[in-house]
Design goal:
The protein has eight helices and six strands. With 229 residues, it is of the alpha+beta class.
């Protein structure tokens, strides 16, 4: 179970059966192949309305749900929105917050940092994309008996799960966009989620539009982001 039956529950271990040792050659091949696969990933802001089979989303969410988490509490919930009316309500609420951000709330330094991305308060992809996956973090869990259970390292755990979800979506052949309007409390109301859950991000998922384009930006070189000691 995801929760402890009591404070002094004894750990229960089972054999590690899923690990398969690979040859050095195969490890190098897989690492290079996965690197090439993931370096093709780009954040996309122009989406097609082409439908995506629900089964693909289900498998991607299973990957996200397998992420490591503090004390294995799994403090997340994924609300998958495909209903056009709900998507439009999310767009309306998000654009209201984004308008306030771009026209007064955001400091100039932040706006300058966003300028190369060409973003503004208009978010048509929230209507266009077939799926919006709203990731919620849970400040505490609730057992089947209704008892509150504290969650640990919530933001770290949900961040790892969200990263795995993004990777799974890309690996499945789709594109995505992380969208974080601030504040995001309207998502609890629109999606009927309890107050103990906090919106973490909206992951927009689907196929890219035929005329999709992406900013001409680059990632930091490996020499700047790693140190071997």
């Amino acid at each position: 179970m995801w929760y402890m039956h009591n404070a002094m529950a004894k750990p229960n271990f089972v054999p590690l059966t899923g690990y398969k040792e690979l040859s050095r050659k195969e490890m190098l091949r897989r690492a290079a192949a996965f690197r090439e696969e993931m370096l093709r990933r780009r954040t996309v802001r122009q989406f097609s309305n082409r439908p995506v089979p629900r089964e693909i989303l289900e498998d991607c969410l299973r990957v996200a749900g397998s992420a490591p988490s503090g004390a294995n509490m799994q403090p997340w919930h994924f609300a998958v929105v495909s209903d056009p009316e709900i998507k439009h309500k999310i767009r309306e609420a998000a654009e209201k917050e984004e308008h306030a951000f771009y026209h007064g709330r955001a400091p100039q330094e932040w706006l300058d940092a966003l300028a190369p991305l060409g973003t503004d308060e208009h978010k048509p992809y929230l209507d266009a994309a077939p799926y919006l996956i709203v990731v919620f973090s849970q400040t505490f869990g609730v057992t089947p008996a209704g008892k509150k259970v504290k969650n640990y390292y919530v933001m770290e755990s949900v961040g790892i799960a969200a990263g795995m979800l993004i990777a799974a979506v890309h690996h499945a052949g789709l594109v995505s966009l992380t969208h974080t309007p601030s504040p995001m409390g309207f998502l609890n109301r629109l999606l009927g989620r309890p107050a103990r859950e906090k919106p973490y991000l909206i992951l927009v998922v689907g196929y890219p539009a035929e005329n999709a384009s992406v900013p001409a930006i680059a990632k930091k070189p490996i020499e700047e982001i790693r140190t071997f000691l």
